[in-house]
Amino acid sequence: MRKVPAQIASKLHLALPLIAEQGLEQTKIDEIADTAGIPKATLYYYFSGKEEILAFLFEDMLTAIADEASIAMGTEGTAVERLEAVVATQIRLLTQNRALGSALIGDLGRISRSPALVDSLQSAFYTPVENLLIEGAGDGSLRAIANPLLGSMTIFGSVIMSILVTVIAPADDLDVPNDLAGELLDVVMRGLLP
Amino acid sequence: MRKVPAQIASKLHLALPLIAEQGLEQTKIDEIADTAGIPKATLYYYFSGKEEILAFLFEDMLTAIADEASIAMGTEGTAVERLEAVVATQIRLLTQNRALGSALIGDLGRISRSPALVDSLQSAFYTPVENLLIEGAGDGSLRAIANPLLGSMTIFGSVIMSILVTVIAPADDLDVPNDLAGELLDVVMRGLLP
DNA sequence: GTCTATAAAGAGATAGAC
DNA sequence: GTCTATCTCTTTATAGAC
User: Fold this and answer.
1) How many CB pairs under 8 A join A and B?
2) Residue B164 binned pLDDT confidence (cut-offs 50, 70, 90)
3) Cys bridge to A122: A126, A163, B126, B148, which one at CB 3.0-4.6 A?
4) Residue A170's pLDDT is what?
5) How confident is the model at residue A74 (pLDDT cuts 50, 70, 90)?
6) How far A182 CA lies from chain B's nearest CA (Å)?
7) Residue A37 contacts strand C, CB under 7 A
8) What is the value of pTM for the model shown?
9) Minimum mean pLDDT among A53-62, A69-78, A161-170, B35-44: which range?
10) DSSP one-letter code for A14
């Protein structure tokens, strides 16, 4: 894959709603080219095919999340406070670019098939959360759970599911909380027991 | 779609590892036919194409989960106890048929594109959990969270993520807990705060 | 280096005999 | 229900203009 110019990258986002709606499989590369306003041959010049295009966009988003999460981690405050900032960042970026977020969450299998994307996913979601869980156990602001991985999975799982249910495939009668990140964290933090 | 004989259905499962590994997109229908030992023409006799085959298998598993979850819900005990039984059932069935579980979790987008599968997913995962959360708030065994949907999302999210991380795409250095369901529920129930 | 046009290859799906 | 042969559509890849 050649280095993709910013203008191409930004145009590609125009094709994302299409991909998110019907899946990459059903999306012809001509549709992508037309919708994005990029000649098909140019796409083949930069990418080796459809998969690589989507992988590039995923990578793009995951890197952005990892970067902002890293910033949120570096702020002042207890581990809990920073954890909340990190999760809020993740949710914000996923919902901000709704179509890409949908495509990503709806296609976790694709990510798990690519080692590079697995790495990016870890940097964006697991690593910051897991580190904060460990820190929190240290500074006493979080309880020390036996397996920090289980904690970060719970958080990541609830984040992506909340996006899935509220943004990607919302039921008709659903009322989305204004402060989704806050309410979600409340549940995860305090648990379900009385 | 014609009614699929049990023998065809069971043979189809042989092709699942293939689909889970490389995705449906990269799986040729000839490969499915060969691996499952079903003539390609017969597949087209019962199904309209690849998508319908996978949808059928998903439906199959989701129905099984919904059925067993419904049984677990009907047992004696507090809401919490039955909730644990339901979640353990879900995890058990997802891991028991590892390849199908992988394909399902890795392809949530496909499910969200099909209203019938969304229904089945709800019956298998959301509905039983959400009902138990409401019941639990009633009998005092669970705290009354503002939005029960958030609770069921948290549970479902952590369930699928734990499957994803431990079963579908396990890291090399990962130690999978023996009692995954139990430890996971401990986190979700008691929360992350001290 | 980038684009237009088009040819070649490969997969999904179908038709009709058995 | 199953088989062989075939048709069609998509992707891939290239040749050549700019």
Assistant:
1) 173
2) confident
3) A126
4) 75
5) very high
6) 11
7) no
8) 0.94
9) A161-170
10) G
Are A160 and B161 an interchain contact pair (Cβ–Cβ within 8 Å)? yes
pLDDT the model gives residue A166: 80
Percent of chain A residues past pLDDT 70, beyond the cut: 100
pLDDT recorded at residue A178: 81
Work out the minimum CA distance from A156 to partner chain B, whole angstroms.
7
Domain regions of chain A by residue span: 55-190
**B112 to A106: CB separation less than 8 angstroms, yes or no:** yes
Protein residues closer than 7 Å by CB to strand D? A 27-30, 40-41, 44, 48-50; B 2, 5, 38-42, 45
Closest residue in B to A160 (Cα–Cα) = B157
Q: What is the torsional sign of CA B63, B124, B62, B172?
A: negative
Q: From the options 1.10.357.10, 1.50.10.20, 3.40.190.10, 3.40.50.300, give the CATH code of A55-190.
A: 1.10.357.10
Distance (Å) from the alpha carbon of A153 to chain B's nearest alpha carbon = 6
Alpha carbon distance B102, B95 (integer Å): 9
Q: Please identify residues in chain A, positions 41-60, with a C-beta within 7 angstroms of any atom of strand C.
A: 41-42, 45
